[in-house]
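1st attempt posting a full record on here, be nice pls
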Amino acid sequence: MKRLISFAAAVAVSAAAITAINVRALADDDIITDAQAGAIAAKATPTPEPEEKVIETGDVYQAYEKIAGYVAERYIDDSYTAEDIMKLGLSSYLEEYDDEALVPLMKAALQSLDDYSDFYTRSEYIEYNNQLNKTFYGLGVMLRQDGEYVAIDGFVEENSLAEISGFKADDKFVKVDGINVVGSSITEVRNLVVGELGTTVLVTVLRDGQEVEITGIRTAVNNATVSGGIFEGNIGYIKIVSFSSGTADEFTETMKSLRDSGVKKLILDLRNNPGGYLSAATAIAQEIVPAGKVVDVAYRDSTMNYTYYSELKDAPFDILVLVNGNTASSAEILASAIQDSGVGILMGEQTFGKAVIQSVFSLRNGMVFKLTIGQYLTRNGNEIDHVGLTPDKEVSNYSKKIDTSGYTKFDFLNRVSVGGSGTNVTAAKERLTIMGYFIGNLGNDVFNTDLRDAIKAFQTDNGLVDNGTLDIATQIKIKKVFESLETTVDFQMQEAYRYFGGNVDDLYSE
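the predicted structure (as tokens):
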């Protein structure tokens, strides 16, 4: 259904710096590039060569008008006309026109179409692509657009520093270092969040109707998207955090190691995986899913439709896939192929339900627009957009207070400052590390300047005198805040391990 916003006036824009726009398909999340299309199995419907379309224009308004026509031709919903697209962008009267006018016009138009179409400046697209390929540092959270908010879609690692610092899935960003980000894009929020390694960023989030302030620590985010190992009982485990350009190769290497060790049972963890490159997901499916369809890709122009196939004769593993509400897009493609083929089951919670495909088109000045141009159907022909996948076994995690019994205790008698030492220093380091304030050496009980800075930050956040001294009031407050922390009990993992005959106690043994 169309979602048109008010149209105040037609806009005549002054001459633009861009006089020509070269539109062509680029690799992006949940799309198939030209090279990938050529590698599709013979059973797939051939994909036409990409159209080379050059839009010559004298000013920004004409560029916008012509791009709107192109969008109307390609967008998956054929009920939109070029005029509709124009109205979506020209939602308010612009009193001043300049060479930058194309950006807000196209952002307004494309973002109004659906949750995934968008428009990027050159720098925004570089950041977007870096995120897709895990080439930056930040808080270790994955983001999604949720209406006018940018929300946390999941975490790069379970029980990560971001979670311990207080962030939770579905938190909506309100401010970053005091800057209001309501109405901002994911790229705009990310640009404010990322920074130098080890520095802090003050984030205000909206949670259950209440605003919560959290101090996050910018930390190194593992660029690898695949990790794995072998549990007691020769049960394999592979976690995929997203599907980037190198994910399929990472998976192949990890899988080979498991097979060389004789692993036949595999727990595949796709929880909090927001998706990414369709080619990576289908390449992995072709390594573990029995012969047959992996996914059907359907476009508005049916002559472009094609199918990914697996030609695998013998599946290497009996698979259990862990999923949750943040398992989306390409992750759902892989999970559905495993479930529909019968080679494995899904365990966890209903998945997100993103089954539409975007393509990216570049402009000669480096700007880019991303457009939803198709959708996919699962191996058994199911449409899961806005529906998701239903697990064969529904299991949920739960939270509990952190167990403090194994940590060094404060004596609440002696204050310590820079140059001092003792058990109070050790106790502070242990707790402030978990809370995300201290990043330093835990191997000694010396009070150094790193600990002083961490204590000052904690004192500031908790209404204490920020003198950087570990005084009695600070010790008491650190203890109180630490004991209020919660940790996630990974009951889903426990049940997955039990499913393959594992003893849960072995998951936590040294």
